[in-house]
Amino acid sequence: MNKPLLTTLFIASTSLLAHAEVSLSANMGLQTDYIWRGMTQNAGDPSIHGGFDLKSDSGFYTGTWAASTSSGTELDYYAGYALSIGDAEIDIGYIDYTYVQHTAEDISERYLGLGATYGFLDSLSIYVDYSYTDDYDASGDSADIAGMGAYYHFGDLVIELAYQQFSYKTTSMEDFNSTRIGLRYDLGGGLAATLTHDDKAYNMTSQEFSSATSFGLKFTSQSNKSC
């Protein structure tokens, strides 16, 4: 984990947040399987998760997120900057994925995302993203993930189609790609239901590939404050 870099980003973002319109949001949820980047973190078992985010009208943000996995607790920290230009958005940041019971597996990443909104009633959003780490799974080898996808908003229903390519320079993991179809339905009051299906997911317990499906419920609460 690159603690000096994350600390610098956290101090910089919170200093800028102190002089802007700030929104604080909290979220918590439950899912039947925690599937992340084509990998099931819970071997098909349920996972609970939650987090906090601070965002400013200037574009800077920071936050933390935690989830239960089959091997213990995942705790993430991140900070970044999102810039909107018309219908387009650029997002650049840094994230630490930490594993409380297995600290040797901690991963630090830099990421870049590009997105745009098009179409009738601004209902279609497309995006591409890229993430890079120079030390995947404590191997000392690098890994990068490239993805692209689209969201279509139809009232309270959001449909997602996404594709990701995973490239690893370590012998402990083979390159692969995965396609995801997802649905999100707003139930009102900050509560949403989700359903995702990945055509190819790596089971970290059995160390085998198969398809994976997950159903979830997520609650989000948000408040605004002028600083």
Largest sheet, in brief, is:
12 strands, antiparallel, barrel
Strand order of the largest sheet: 1-4-5-6-7-8-9-10-11-12-13-14
Question: Helical region count?
Answer: 1
Number of strands: 14
Backbone CA Rg? 18 Å
By secondary-structure content and strand pairing, the structural class works out as mainly beta
Overall helicity: under 10%
Multimeric organization: single chain
> How large a portion of the residues is in β-strands, by DSSP E?
over 45%
The best one-word shape is globular
Summarize the structure.
The protein is mainly β. It has one helix at 3-17; strands at residues 21-31, 35-36, 39-40, 47-56, 60-69, 72-85, 88-99, 107-118, 124-133, 143-154, 157-168, 176-188, 191-203, 208-226.
Task: Supply database-style keywords.
227 residues, mainly beta, twelve-stranded antiparallel barrel, 14 strands
